[in-house]
Amino acid sequence: MHNRKYTKYTSQEPRQLQDYVLDPGPLSTCNFAMNTLQVDGFSQGDGIVFAMKSKETDDNGVKITSLGFHVPAATTQNVDFQVYALKKEGYYADPNRDTLNQGVAYDYRGNAQIDEWWERISSGTIRKSDLIASETNALDFYNIPFDMFNATDIPPNGGVRSFYISTALLYANLILGNGVNDEQLLVGYNDPAAPDLLVGEGASGFSDTKFMYKTREFVGKIIYETECATEVPSVSISPSTSKPTSTPTLLPTTSHLPTETSMPPTQPAGAEAAILFPLLKCDPNQATVPQEVQAAVSDQVTYTMTEGKESGDFSNFESAVLEAKVICVQRRLTGDSSQHNRLLPTQSSAMQFSVVITGEYRSLDGEPPDLGPVVEDSINADAAKFTKELKARSANPLLEQAMEPQVKARTLDNDELEKFKNDAFEVTIRAFPSPSPTAPPQDKMKTALLIVILIVSGVMVVLASFLLFRHAERRAVENRRKKMEMKHISDQRVSALKEDTLKQEWEKENKMRMASNSWQKMKNESDYPPYYGGAPPQNQQHPHARDHHQDSYEEDQLY
């Protein structure tokens, strides 16, 4: 048995793959391959830098033995590549970044530091003849041969190692809102010791200018060493009828299959599932599900089955959507005909899928595969997460209205699996419940909140009415006060006018009286006869003969 041991930096031991990995490597060790989840949104760059992390429970660490990636440019010309590993453990840059994307404590990105901090673990030239078909059926995938790759260790118990690939490869834009050093989605054999692939950054030319790096996901394959299922048997290359010798030959086996006694062979397994997504709202004219939504559901089911802890002894899952439809039922209110356009607040529409899931089953106790309950348990284990990841695969408006799914599944027998392979399978289980489910139970909290709102609204109406009444009363009082003031002012004006009139009349009468007195005086003076000298008559006093003392007195008064 080959045990993984943690050694620093790199090693170059010969390796081989288990039977469930398509890429056979050198002999003497065994390897697993994990693929990144194939999604849309690819873009081409000149390189990518990223990190890988071992599981916290892994006491041995992980040894990366090869990498694979897409190189579309190699279909028309030769392309050089280099792969580097950070000499020290840890991230290639401090996860804490400043505003210019520079690591706060340390940052090993850039050509100026590549010779000091990075070790080249692989390099070469990619030719068109070196390319193979990938999961997307594009002939642009390159897998680095084992003998061209220096195996590199990832430290145990959550240890981190950073890698940098320099070539014209494809990487992916982010999905699910991931950021740098978040875990990427991987599909492959359900190995609890598989390393975590972390989101990296596009490293065009490995620039020393840090803000040039953009968050990107590695697209391709990582291959790592694992414990072999059995000891490597001693069998010659050519068949032999003689008994095996007690001493192994120098040549190890060329077969990658484990022996029958140590590991039972796999057998096909399948299940038929009905998945129903209640919809918040729908279009009555839409009855079909777009192909992109069907593909997203198929991929998410495959990923959930692969990553789920409930999968157990099952592996190599594939999913296919056989039927998909939308049922949109608009239920209207009864009773008041004036409200016939209002819809009931119940969920009456759904999106239904009939899916077939296939895989391989390796039984250690001889029990036949029972995949149906495993499908239900895998999806129902975290239905909210299943829905969230599904929506991240497609931005279709119909999928945005989907709620958490309801799942019902059953196990397929060998005859049904054979019919499915020959495209003769007929769907026997369909989504549930009916497209017009009953109204959800009333939320007591919402009812209490509604009552409180009504009470508060009533109090506000009363207060508003009181304030309006007070305002109106104040305006009336103000108007009365103004009228009284105007009346008082008017009375004052009338009184003043009367007083002025009386004064004017009095002055007029006084003037008339004075004029009359003056006329009378002049008349009296005119009654004296003219004076021509001599003694005045006895009955007449000369006007100039006034009392001298009176004149003196009047003069004194003047002075």
What descriptors fit this protein?
559 residues; alpha+beta; seven-stranded antiparallel beta sheet; 8 helices; disordered C terminus
Structure classification:
alpha+beta
Distance between the termini: 155 Å
Contiguous runs where pLDDT drops below 50 for at least 5 residues: 1-26, 231-263, 333-347, 433-439, 552-559
The topology string of helices and strands comes to EEEEEEHEEEEEEEEEEEHEEHHHEHHH
Count up the helices: 8
Residues in helices, as a percent range? 25-40%
Shape: elongated
Strand portion: 15-25%
Radius of gyration: 53 Å
Mean pLDDT over all positions = 78
DSSP E strands, number: 20
Instruction: Please give the largest β-sheet.
Output: 9 strands, antiparallel
